[in-house]
Amino acid sequence: MLKNLSPLHTPELLHTLASMGHGDDLAIVDAHFPAVSMAKRLVRLDGVDAPAALAACLRLIPLDTFVDDPALRMQVVHDPDQIPEVQQQFQKVIDEEEGQHWPLAKMERHAFYERAKQAFAIVVTGELRPYGCVLIKKGVVLNG
Q1: Does residue 110 sit in helix, strand or coil?
Q2: Which entry of 9, 22, 78, 101 is annotated as an active-site residue?
């Protein structure tokens, strides 16, 4: 038993986040995403919405400050400029957890799938809203 952790910080998620290195990608995806067939490593957070899963991850790892787009959302097919509510919630989580605004960049759906296949891990959630998918790149934890 550990103190000060969220119930979302399951042993699998903690091990995955601790095992990641600087520059590794983590995909946090909705229940519709083909995570089982794509994942190198799969972490299940069934029953959890995707913004809550993102918050649990960003509470423990920072975004990569050495790249232009450390957080990417899957763009809506046939309407790439639409930002669904779930993705607006992702942006709020990122801004809150990082303590500053990091724009959530968009990525075409099939390009997102290919990037997710290469991710260090995929965290599949119980998110039922479409386009509840985000990719984050782990940064460096600076002590000082």
Answers
A1: helix
A2: 22
